[in-house]
Design a protein that fits this description.
By secondary structure, this protein is an alpha/beta fold. The protein has 18 helices and 8 strands. The two termini are about 40 Å apart.
């Protein structure tokens, strides 16, 4: 195996912007939360709820936690809620994944004998074992789904962690079924443990306001990482392939990433690939610029499409307004402050200034589909009902990092940072 091949493999092992991390070795900045969740799943709470903004690393955290708790001989169960999926369909998918693990366990004959004796098993489970196929019929209601899952839980040869991801895709009625599962898992003392994952700012956004639910849940809110954590992600990968990344480059990665590990993985991967391709042991200015260009091209398509729809309008002030919003570290920015920040950047970079009327029209248009719906109104504070129309935010939590990356590629550095 030649040296570039070895280095590319090392980069792929350490940096994965496309796929979630599944090993604690590569999970940065989450040690305390990880230890807490592993302890809860091992000894105490049967249901852990991981939530936070998109791109903060929830799936990586959940799957790493699950595999640390799971028996080494059995892979944890991972099921994601597809758009439009119904909860009963999700229950069925969980059941079939459990069946697969039971059949693979090597103890099928012993389990079949116990099935023959245990007449209380549901017909669906008995039929699956008779046919030796991990297939279940559609569930009629949450009660029938729970009975099947309870039977399968009892047949599992070892503790299994079930990760249920993308809960934000469920509608209100399906969240009621999910709440019922959470309560019953706790009341009926399942052997299996559950990790629920979703985009939210609090548990009520995804599961509702059921009064008894909080006592069944271990809530784990995930916040953006520190600049030092983002820098360490790239520095460790670079050290493995013996490439030096100057501190100012690591700082820029941290600024662009704005706490979201996706961008550290994206930028680090692109820059280190350029270093290997150029047979360089140092990330010099030329390699950094080429890496940033590569990272822009590899950025998420939905972010690129939305950004281009908002900024490619024939006049630069559309782009510069979006840059001004990304320059601020404040998630919800008042419109007047946004315009003031735009004016400051225009003066700093000698950009032509648009009129305030044109800027306010642009702000109104940025929320429309033909402008990429790149921004939205700030939602009501928890417990209130009114939208905060005088405050705006990026519709996607990852857009700020993408905009900073785009500006970096065009030679403009956005964002500020404080590093210990």
């Amino acid at each position: 195996m030649d040296e570039p091949d070895l280095k590319f493999r090392a980069i792929a092992k350490n940096l994965s912007p496309e796929t979630p991390i599944r090993s604690s070795e590569f999970l940065r900045g989450r040690d305390e939360d990880l230890n807490n969740v592993v302890r809860e799943l091992t000894y105490f709470q049967p249901v852990v709820f991981v939530y936070g903004p998109r791109g903060v690393g929830k799936t990586s955290f959940a799957r790493t936690s699950a595999q640390l708790v799971n028996s080494s001989a059995i892979e944890h169960v991972y099921v994601a809620c597809a758009p439009g999926a119904r909860m009963l369909q999700v229950f069925r998918e969980i059941g079939e994944e459990l069946l697969v693990r039971i059949f693979r366990s090597g103890a099928i004959e012993d389990i079949k004998k116990s099935v023959e004796v245990e007449i209380s098993l549901t017909p669906a489970v008995r039929t699956s074992f008779e046919k030796q196929e991990p297939v279940l019929p559609k569930f009629e209601d949450s009660n029938s789904a729970l009975r099947v899952l309870r039977d399968l839980d009892g047949l599992m040869p070892a503790k299994t962690v079930i990760v249920l991801d993308e809960l934000e895709e469920l509608d209100e009625s399906d969240r009621t079924d999910l709440a019922y599962l959470i309560k019953q898992v706790g009341d009926q003392e399942f052997q299996s443990k559950f990790v629920l994952v979703g985009i939210a700012s609090n548990v009520h956004e995804l599961i509702g306001t059921h009064e008894s639910l909080p006592r069944y849940l271990k809530e784990v809110p995930l916040s953006p990482l520190s600049p030092e954590d983002l820098m360490e992600i790239v520095a460790k990968a670079a050290a493995e392939i013996e490439v030096e990344v100057p501190r100012d480059v690591l700082l820029r990665i941290a600024v662009v990433g704005n706490g979201f590990p996706h961008f550290a993985h994206l930028m680090g991967k692109a820059i280190l690939i350029e270093a290997v391709l150029n047979d360089s042991s140092t990330v010099q200015s030329k390699i950094y610029r080429s890496g940033i260009n590569r990272a822009v091209q590899d950025s998420l398509q939905e972010l690129r499409i939305s950004y281009e729809a908002a900024t490619q309008r024939g006049q630069d002030y559309f782009k510069h307004m979006i840059w001004a919003l990304a320059h601020s570290d404040i998630v919800d920015l008042r419109i007047d402050d946004w315009i003031s920040l735009y004016m400051e950047l225009c003066s700093e970079h000698s950009w032509p200034k648009a009129t305030e009327k044109a800027l306010r029209t642009a702000i109104s248009n940025f929320s429309k589909e033909n402008h990429g719906q790149i921004i939205s109104n700030t939602p009501a504070r928890y417990g209130a009902t009114e939208m905060r129309y005088r405050y705006k935010r990026f519709t996607s939590t990852l857009m700020r990092g993408h905009v900073r990356l785009q500006a970096e590629n065009e030679g403009t550095r956005l964002g500020r940072i404080e590093v210990l």
